[in-house]
Batch of 4 targets.
Target 1
Amino acid sequence: MENITLLIGIVIVTALVFDFTNGFHDTANAMATTISTGALKPKTAVAMSAVLNLIGAFISVEVAATISKGLINEDSGIDPAVVLAGLVGAIIWNLLTWLAGLPSSSSHALMGGLIGATIASVGIGAVSMSAVVSKVLLPALAAPLVAGIAAMLATKLTYRITRKTEERDVAKGYRAGQIASAALVSLAHGTNDAQKTMGVITLALISGGLLGADADPPMWVIASAGIAIALGTYLGGWRIIRTMGKGLTDIRPAQGFAAQTSSAVTILASSHLGFALSTTQVCSGSIMGSGLGRKGGTVRWNTAGRMLAAWGLTLPAAGLVAAGAALLTAQGDWGVIVVTVLTVVISAAIWLASRKEPVDHTNVNDVEPVAPDTPAQLGVPPQPAVVAGVGTGTADAEAESSGPSAAAPLSSSAS
C-alpha cells in the first residue's frame, strides 16, 4: 500500500505539471486576438485570463466525469502507473508543439496518452470506444467547424452593422467587447480544461483504491487543478499566442470580438454537455472563420495546414509515447524512476531549445513576413506596429467596402 500511495503521489504531481503546461499552451485561446489588436497589454491579458481560469475550475465537473468515469473502464485492471504513462505522453507532446508554436490540443494529447497507455498495459478492451467516438472524436470534428461558421457570420454581421460608423468609435467599442469576450473564453477554458486534470487525478485515486468507482473529484483536487492551470496561464505561452494572433489571419477588433464570442459559446455549451473538446481547435476555427468573414480578409492556409497536421497527429503521437512509457512503468519501481527521469530530461532539453529564439511579452506581436499563399492575401501591405488604441486612419467599415486595398489592420507592439 505504501508503494501504491507513493506512486499515486507521483501521478498527482505529474498531473499538475500537465495542467501547468495546459495553461501556458492554451493561453492563446482566450488572449491571442486581444493581445494582437492591442485591446489589452500582454501581461495584463494573461493575468486576467489566469484569474478567470481559476474561477472557471469550480463551476462544473461534467468534463472531469467524462475523463474519470467514461473514457477508461475503471474495473479493467489499470493502475496508477498507467495513468502516469498517459500523462507523460501528453506532457511531452504539449512541450514539442509549444516549441514549434503550434496550437495543438492539450485535451487530445491527454486523452491520446491515456488511451495509448491503457492499450499497451491491459488491451484495447479497457477503452470505451463509444465514449471516444461520441465524446472526443465527433466533437473534435464538429466544434471547430461550428465555431468557425459562427465567427464568420458574426464578423459579417458586425461589419454590416457598423459600416457607417466612424473608425475610432468602432475600434474603441470592439476593443471593450474583446476584453469582455476574452474574459468569457477564459472562464469557459477553466470549466473545460482544468476539469481534465481533475478527472485524471480522480482516475488515479479510483485505480489505487482510494476513491469509489463513482466518486466525483474531491475539493482539494478541484482547487489544485485550478491553481496549476492558472499559474501556467499567467506564464503565457507566447509562441502560440504569436501564431494564433498574427500567424493565421490579420485580426482587427471587430473580428477578434466575433471570434472570441463564438468560441466562448461553443466551449460553454460543450462543457455543459460533458464533451471533452479541444478549446484550441474551437478558438483556432473561430479565428479562421473571422478571417473569412471580413471582405478582403486573409487566412494563411500554410499555417492552418501545419496546425491541421498537428491536430491529426496529437492523439496517435501522444498515445505512442505513452505506450512506451507504460511498457517501462510495468517493469516495476525502476521503470517508474526511468520514466520520471526521462520526462524531466526531455522537458529540460525542449526548454533549453526554446531559449535559442525566445518569445515573450515584449516581442509576441513581432512576426516575420509571410509569403501570400491565397489570392486574398495578394496586395495586402505589411502590417505596421502602432500604439495600442491609436488607429491607422482606415476604418474597419472602410475595409469591408474596399477589400484588400484597405490599409493594414490595427495592431499593437506592447512590451
Target 2
Amino acid sequence: MERARRAKAALGDRLFILGHHYQRDEVIQFADVTGDSFKLAREAAARPNAEFIVFCGVHFMAESADILTAPEQKVILPDLAAGCSMADMARLAQVEDAWDVLADAGVADVTVPVTYMNSSADIKAFCGKHDGVVCTSSNAKAVLKWALNRGEKVLFFPDQHLGRNTAVLQMGMSLDDCVVYDPHKYNGGLTAEELQAATMILWKGHCSVHGRFTHEAVDEVRARIPGVNVLVHPECQHEVVLKSDLIGSTEFIIKTIQQAEPGSKWAIGTELNLVKRLANDHPDLEITFLEQHVCYCATMNRIDLPHLVWALENLAQGHVVNQITVDPETEHYAKAALQRMLDLPGETARD
C-alpha cells in the first residue's frame, strides 16, 4: 500500500486511476473515480490532461477508454489477463458468420445489430459498420426502441439474458418473439423460418457471475429472511428476474441501497465484492448475497494490489507497460456505434 501511495504521488496529475465497482477493496481505495464500465470510460475522456489512464477493470473497458480518450493518452490495464468471459463469447469471426446466416435467410437487411457495452472493440466496430449501436443495461430499452424504428429485427449480443429481459419485461414482447443463436451450432441452430419469424435474435452468451443465480435461490432467501427485498442485475436469468422485486444496472443497485429505508432487508444478486462493500457502507440495512455460494468476478479479481503497484512503479520510472490500444479503423467504427447511443435523447448511459 505504501509503494502504491508513493508511485501515485510521484506521477501526480499525469496519472488518473479508474476503479470498477467489482474491484477488490485493496485496489479501489486508490481509484480517483469509481463507477461502472461506461461511466469510467467517459470519466477518462473527461481528463484530457492525464497522460496515463490506469483502468482497474477488464480488457473491454480499457478498450472503450482508449477509444474515447485522446491519441496521446495511454490507457494501462494492470493485468492483461483480466478479460471478460461474456465478451469472449462473441468473437468477430462468429458474428460475421452469423450475419451471413441472416443474409441467407433474407433478413440481414432488416436486422439492426446491437451489442452490449460488455463486448470487444471489434464487435462494437462491427455494429458501427452495419448501422448498429451499443447499449448499456440501463438504456437497453431506449436502444432497442431506436433499433426497431430502423429495422424489423435485432441481433443482440453477447448477453442473451439482458436482451430477453429487456424485450419481454420492458418492450412488451413475448418469449416466442425471441430465438437464441448458438455460434457453436450450424446456422446458429436455427432455421431460416425461425429467423424470419423472430424479432429478437439473441446471442447465446451470458455473464459468468450473474448467470449463476437461480430462481431456487430467490425462494430460499425469501424463506430464510421474511420481508426481504430481492434486487438483481438484468444479466440474471429470466426466471430469476421474474421472481425478484427490483431489477437494474450496477448504478441502479447502488442508488437503491443508498436510498433504502433504515432497517430494511435486501438480498442482492450481483458481484460479491460490490455486495460486501454495500453491506459495509450501510450497517443500518440487512444486506445479504442472493446465493450462498461465493461468486466473485474471477477475471476482474485478477487486478490486485501487486499488479497495480507494478504498473504504477513502472510508469513512475518511465516504462509504459500493458498499454491497451485500438487500431484506428476499429476505433472509428466502434466510436460511431457508441456515438449513436450517446445521441439518444434524454438517456443516461450506464451498464
Target 3
Amino acid sequence: MLRLAMTTDAETFERVRGPLADRGIDVGHVQAKERSLRVSGGEDSPAADPAEFDGFDVGLVYPTRLMEGAVVDERLGVPWVNGRDAVVTSRNKAGVLAALDDAGLPTPRTTLVSNPVDESVVVDAVEGFSYPVVVKPNSATRGVGVATATDLDSLLGVVDYLNLVHDYRATGDKSFLIQEFLPDARDYRAMVVDGAYAGAVERVLDDDALAAGRWKHNVHRGATARGVDLGSEARDLAERAAAALGIDYLGVDLLATDDRLVVNETNARPTVDAATKYEDDFYDRLTTLIRRTANAE
C-alpha cells in the first residue's frame, strides 16, 4: 500500500484518510510545527526520533511553515503533490493576480504596495479606485488582516496598523494589496485536481452575520460552505487559473456578481470538504495524481 504523508491533522486529514485508504493509499500524519525537529547532531540528539519520517512514498502538500518545511522535506525525502514552489506561488496573492492578468484571466482591480512608503504613495495607489476598497496583507490566509476602507482617512488608518507590523525587522513580507470591493459578490471555492474541475462550494454568511455587517466569507470566520454545481464559465476559469500557475491541485476562489466573474485568490493547501460537495470521481482523480507524483522519481 502506498504511504502518503500529510502535515495537517485538521479537517482535511480526517476527511481524506478513509476514501484514500479505500483506494490503496495509507495516510499518515507528520507533525511539522509546534515541536522540536532534529537538524543535526547524530543519534545522541535529544530531539525527535527520525523513524517517524520513514516509510513514506509521497506527500500532500508541502508544510505551511516554510522554515520547518525544509527540515521535514529533508527527513521525508519524498515528492510532493504541491511542493514548496507551488505553496510559495499561491501564497503570494499579488504574484498570482499578476500571472493571471498576464494570462488574460479576469481578476479584481488590485495594486500592490511595498512598505516602507510615504503616505503620498498610498494616495497615488488608490487613485482611480472607488470606495470602499479592500486592504489585505499579501501573504496571509483565512482572511486574517483583511479590512475595508470607506474613505482615504480610514484607508490611511488601516495602513498605519500595517506599518506597525512591517516596522518589525523580522517581518518577512512587508507588502499589502489595495483591491476593489465587489459588493454582494457570491464567493465560491472551486477545486481543481490534475488540471480539471472537481467540484465547488459556495461560502455563505447567515442572516444574523449579514445583519451585523459581516462581509468576509472565510469558513474559518464563521461562513458555511455548501456544495454547488458551477456553470461552465466558472469551471473553465478555475481550470485556466490552475493551468496558468502550473499547480496540479488547487483551490480557486471566485467572486461572482450579476455581470462579472473574477479569480480573487488561490490556495495550494486547500481544505477538503465533504465528498458529497464534489464531483463523484474526486477521490479517484486525487488518487491518480498522488500515485503519479509518487512514481515520478
Target 4
Amino acid sequence: MYNKKLNRTSEHRKALLKNMLNSLIKYEQITTTLPKAKFLKPQADKIITLGKKKSLHNTKILMSKLQNINSTNKVKKTLSKRYEQRKGGYTRIVKAGFRYGDSAPMAVIEFVDRDLEAKKVDRKKKEVSKDTPKEQPKNKEKKENKEKK
C-alpha cells in the first residue's frame, strides 16, 4: 500500500479512499489534488485486477473495499472486460495546474481508454416534448389580459 497519511486519521483516510474509488469507478475521471491522486492510483489498479479474476471470494473482497454494489458490478462486468488484454496500468494521472484558493497542485486521474459518456451519468436528460410550444401561447394570452386591465 502507498503509505501516505494525507494529514488525516486512519478512519478518515479509509473513508476518503473508498469515496474516491467509488467516484472514479462511477465517472471514470475525477479531479483531485496531486497527492490524493497518487494515493488513489495503485488502489484503483488493484481493484481492476481483482475484478478481472472471476471468483466469489474476489467479489466479496471488492464489495468490502467499495461497499457499493453498483461500483462492484461495474468493475466486474464493464471494466474487467475492457481491460482483459491489458496487464496493468489501468489509470493515468494528468497534472492540472494549481487550485485557486490555496495553490494546491491539482491532477486529473482517469481510466485509460475511458468511456466518455460515464461523466454524464447523473445529469438529467432534457426531453424535447411537443407540449412546450403549446404552453407558450397560453402565457402570451395571460400577458395580454394583464395589459388590458
